[in-house]
Structures are given as structure tokens and as C-alpha cells.
Amino acid sequence: MMDYPLLLRNFLLRAAKFFPKKEILSVFPDEIFRYTYGDYFKRTCQLANALESLGIKRGDRVASIALNNHRHLELYFGVPCMGAVLHTANFRLPPHHLAYILNHAEDKVLFIEEDLVFIVEAIKDQLKTVEHYVILSQSGNIPKTSLSPVYSYDEWIAKFPEEYDFPEDLDEKAPALMCYTSATTGDPKGVVYTHRSVVLHSYAGSSTFGVYESDCALHIVPMFHANAWGMPFICVGMGIKQVLPGRETLNMEKICQVTADEKVTVTG
Q: Is residue 128 exposed (0-12), middle (13-18) or buried (19+ Cβ within 10 Å)?
């Protein structure tokens, strides 16, 4: 058998090629947004182009302070597949720990959910390496903020091409994502996931969770913590329909309704 680099790029391209009509849903308080893997791939390409325009290069760290939704899922692949490293920051950490991890990771771009901008506002003067702020907004509006420079995600990526040549020559052992522990003692500790480790975890996880291409997965586990147990990677790699409940995760009536309406078969 030929040696084959285990890259997240392969999951992304497979989903776009074989499952372009499969759906990805985000549940918001006032609406359910849905699009296809074909749409997802185009926006992920736009994201990669947009990051490149800011000078983001291989190995640079890009942070997210975000919930479970399609924009965060775009970051899950757009950032590592272009060679950068996605740092999913746990916004439930104490403010001084959140500032510490963003500085320790040396994040250059910070993507922030519109409902969570206030968290970053409280620590912005402590951030030493962040050069750009991007607001993930379903409303399309940028909340009143003193963060600068600041961009509206959808408006920002819309300016860029829907095609991107994701590199094939990445080292499979290169960092793809990172997150930090909750600091039981001392400061939080960074945990790095390589392309190879995420791909192998996805192969094992698909069997462990017992999921198939015909399933519909509801992501309850936070995408900012431990990569949501790897389920987003498993689902993209296998072309599984995904439901991302965002802030509605704790709205049990809505979760039950969505589970029934979308015929959810697996969740955390």
C-alpha cells in the first residue's frame, strides 16, 4: 500500500466531492439556517483566502471564541487546511486565564461570536498578539465595540474567491488545532492536535460512536472544548448531516423538536 499523508484537507475535499447536497444546520433563537456541504466548501475556501489576505501563514495561530454553528465549523477546516492552527478558546475560563491562553498561543486573529464580544472587551487591553478581530454574526451586524480593526465575518469573506488550492504538502504531523486545559493547578496548559492525530481519531471515533453516512448528528458537546469529541471531523469526513444548536443547546424544548424534525440519530 502507498504511504498517504493523513491531512484534514482530504476530509474536506471528500465531503465536497461526494456529498455536496448533504445539509448542515445551525439552530438560532429565531431561525434555523441550513445549507449544503457544497455551500460549506465554497465558504471555507473564501475563509482561507481571507486569512491569507491578512498575512496568515503556515503555523500561525488563529483563535475562536464561538458556539456550535456553521461558521465555527468553517473555521474547523478553513484554518488548519490552509496550514494555520485553530485555537478553540474556552470562554468559560476566568478572564485572566482567557487572556493568558490567547497570549500564550500568540493568536494573530480572533473570531468572536456576536453574543460573546463583551467577554473580549473585558480583556482586550491585556491581549498582546491579536492583530484582527472578526465577528461571527447571524444578524449581519457588528455589535458596538472598541475592538479594532474589526470585521463582520460574512461580509468579509464574501469579497474572496470560492476556490482555494488547499496545500497537499503539509506535514501530517504539523499542528492543526489546539486548546487549553482548565488549569486545575497553575496556568492552563496547551494541548496540540496534529492533522494525523485528528484523522486517526476520526477513523477510530466513527467506529466507537457507531456512525454512518446515513446518520444525522446533533453536536451538543461544545466545539470550543476538546474539539467536540472530534464529532465535527468525523461528520465532515463521512459526509454526515449535521445539526449545530449554538446557544439553543440548553433549550430542551427546541432541542427535542429539532431532534424529531431533522431525524437526529446520534448526539453527545
A: exposed
Instruction: Classify residue 124: in a domain, yes or no.
Output: yes
Domain that holds residue 215: 8-267
CATH number of 106's domain: 3.40.50.12780
Domain membership of residue 107 (yes or no) is yes
Q: Look at residue 61 and give its three-state secondary structure.
A: strand
pLDDT in tens, 80-123: 999 999 999 999 999 999 999 999 999 999 999 999 999 999 99
Give the pLDDT confidence of 119-149 residue by residue, as tens digits: 999 999 999 999 999 999 999 889 999 999 9
**Exposure string over 72-108, b if 16+ CB within 10 A, otherwise e:** bbbbbbbbbbbbbbbbbbbbebeeebbbbbbebbebb
Total structural domains in the chain?
1
| Cβ neighbourhood burial of 59 (10 Å; 0-12, 13-18, 19+) | exposed
CA–CA dist 22, 36 (Å, integer): 5
User: Would 187 be classed as within a structural domain?
Assistant: yes
> Do 13 and 4 meet the contact criterion of CB atoms below 8 Å apart?
no
Q: pTM for the full model?
A: 0.97
Reference 262, options 246, 247, 242; nearest CA is 242
112 located within any domain: yes
Kindly report whether the peptide bond that precedes residue 143 is cis, defined as omega within 30 degrees of 0.
Answer: no
How far is the C-alpha of 127 from the C-alpha of 3, rounded, in Å?
Answer: 42
Torsion sign (Cα): 173, 176, 182, 183: positive
